[in-house]
């Protein structure tokens, strides 16, 4: 193995290890009295890892830096995944995650601006892409080169407001805008293709004038490389379709709609941790 290959392997291991720590925090939060949206947080953990530890121009010590990249979690019900990621990145102490959903905690079921690193409250599905368009357009008018990223759920694509924003972004040539679709194939009530078929999804986005990449959503190194390289085509917004598994990594929940929202019992709390590789927190 060459030195370059060793360095690439080390970088991959680092991102994978961080993603494991994020999932570990999510397990703990979902074992609390309020439970949490574990399945969708697990499916997008590798995307969040790639963004916050390799792609986004953000500074935990200056969360309101006007030149920062913006990230919006449009699928705001996966807030436990975002909180875990922000804590590991240093926006607030990891120990604060233990208070998730408790009285007096700022870590609520959906993201709110009281949490450092959260740009806007989200979770009313179908709004995040339009908000990210606004950020991208504002940056253009301000003469900034910052990028705006937004993570959507695939069930969320059933909202008509998403496609209005898709049309607007392409017509405005917002090439500093990057959308990511967490394509885990499941929503609360079943398989997305049984409820409202969307395939061929990549071709649908292309037909609206977007540059598209359709990839394995559990390969953080590849995700980081592609997202860091956006825009992929001048004058076009970019969308990365991340093919993922809901509840990824937990044999008793992976690929099941029942993982959408769970309150882990002590037994399943232990089972979930035992299914993950051993690691330690960054902070």
TrEMBL record:
Keywords tagged on the record: Thiamine pyrophosphate
Gene Ontology molecular-function annotations: magnesium ion binding
Domain of life, per lineage: Bacteria
Originating species: Catenulispora acidiphila (strain DSM 44928 / JCM 14897 / NBRC 102108 / NRRL B-24433 / ID139908)
Protein name: Transketolase domain protein
UniProt entry tagged with the keyword Lipid metabolism: no
Similarity comment: family membership: Belongs to the transketolase family.
Cofactor entry: thiamine diphosphate
Location of the Transketolase N-terminal domain: 17-268
InterPro entries to which the protein is assigned, alphabetical: THDP-binding (IPR029061), Transketolase_N (IPR005474)
UniProt cross-references to CDD domains, sorted A to Z: TPP_TK (cd02012)
Segments traversing the membrane: none
Any matching Pfam family: Transketolase_N
Keyword DNA-binding among record annotations: no
């Amino acid at each position: 193995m060459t030195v370059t290959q060793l360095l690439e392997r080390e970088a991959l291991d680092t991102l994978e290890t961080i993603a494991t720590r994020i999932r570990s925090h999510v397990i703990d939060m979902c074992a609390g009295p309020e439970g949490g949206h574990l399945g969708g947080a697990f499916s997008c953990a590798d995307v969040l890892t790639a963004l916050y530890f390799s792609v986004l121009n953000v500074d935990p010590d200056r969360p309101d830096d006007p030149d920062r990249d913006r990230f919006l979690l449009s699928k705001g019900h996966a807030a436990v995944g975002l909180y875990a990621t922000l804590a590991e990145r240093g926006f607030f102490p990891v120990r604060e995650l233990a208070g998730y959903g408790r009285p007096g905690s700022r870590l609520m079921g959906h993201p709110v601006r009281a949490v450092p690193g959260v740009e806007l409250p989200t979770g009313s599905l179908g709004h995040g892409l339009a908000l990210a368009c606004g950020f991208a357009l504002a940056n253009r008018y301000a003469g900034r080169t910052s990028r705006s990223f937004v993570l959507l759920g695939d069930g969320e694509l059933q909202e008509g407001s998403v496609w209005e924003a898709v049309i607007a972004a392409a017509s405005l040539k917002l090439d500093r805008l990057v959308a990511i679709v967490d394509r885990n194939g499941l929503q609360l009530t079943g398989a997305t293709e049984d409820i409202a078929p969307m395939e061929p999804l990549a071709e649908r986005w292309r037909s609206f004038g977007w540059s598209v990449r359709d990839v394995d959503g559990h390969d953080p190194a590849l995700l980081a490389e592609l997202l860091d390289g956006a825009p992929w085509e001048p004058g076009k917004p970019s969308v990365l379709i991340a093919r993922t598994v809901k509840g990824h990594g937990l044999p008793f929940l992976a690929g099941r709609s029942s993982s959408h929202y769970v309150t882990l019992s002590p037994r399943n709390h232990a089972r979930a941790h035992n299914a993950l590789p051993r690691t330690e927190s960054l902070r």
